[in-house]
Design goal:
Blueprint: E1 4-10, H1 15-19, H2 32-44, E2 52-55, H3 59-68, E3 74-76, H4 93-96, H5 102-106, H6 120-141, E4 145-150, H7 152-162, E5 163-164, E6 179-184, H8 186-192, E7 195-201
Parallel strand pairs: 1-4, 2-3, 2-4, 5-7
Antiparallel strand pairs: 1-6, 6-7
Helix pairs in contact: 2-3, 6-7
């Protein structure tokens, strides 16, 4: 039976990443350092071949997609936008340490959300609904190699919800410009809504997977 490969790629570095700020829905671009880092990674390492490309519509993701896959038109999906951090947007953990809500939200307590932001449950539902639509679309069309350029929180949510091995979200932290390879077996997906997580990438040229 045919299997389907999806590459989950985290966007390149932003100035706010370096400052340790929570940036969710805020539409910040890649930093110049982030663009240069992606160009260097692309020149020195190997990113996987794809037939289809999906992305969060925010600049840091669309800019990453254009650098890594300049000849492939990307389909922007709102469901792959990072969590809306509400009043936590633009702030660091140090700046939020006095908030009574912040430690509960950080610990993943159910029903807790940033003021005027998005709860962990709402974020997870949004991301998973979008991912399932993409996965099922690939199976319907027969496209077997695709990439999703998105945010760190989105990648962690997808992998913790569906991935084998089954690991908590913090085990799936992804550096900027890097990602995970997942393989969807249709029978396993239809039976259990699970997929296998394979290698991380980009690959060293001398260590390409078989």
């Amino acid at each position: 039976m045919k299997s389907y490969t999806i590459y989950l790629i985290r966007h390149g570095m932003t100035a706010e990443n370096l400052e340790g700020r929570y940036i969710g829905h805020t539409d910040v671009p890649l930093s110049e350092e982030g663009k240069e880092q992606l160009e260097n990674m692309k020149a020195e390492m190997v990113f996987p071949y794809i037939d289809a490309l999906f992305t969060s519509p925010l600049k840091r993701c669309t800019e990453t997609a254009k650098i890594l896959y300049p000849e492939t038109s990307a389909i922007a999906i709102d469901g792959f936008i990072e969590c809306n951090f509400g009043e936590f947007e633009g702030k660091t953990a140090e700046e939020l340490k006095k908030s009574p809500v912040f430690p509960k939200w950080l610990a993943g307590e159910k029903g807790v959300e940033p003021p005027f932001g998005e709860s962990n449950e709402a974020f997870g539902r949004r991301v998973c609904e979008s991912f399932e639509k993409v996965a099922e679309g690939l199976m319907k069309t027969g496209v077997t190699e695709a990439a999703i350029v998105t945010h760190g929180g989105v990648i962690m949510t997808i992998l913790s919800a569906y991935g084998i091995p089954e690991l908590p979200m913090h085990e799936w932290i992804t550096p900027n410009g890097c990602g995970f390879t997942i393989k969807i077996n249709p029978s396993l997906w239809m039976r259990a809504k699970k997929f296998e997580v394979f290698s991380e990438f980009p690959y060293e040229r001398e260590n390409l997977p078989d």
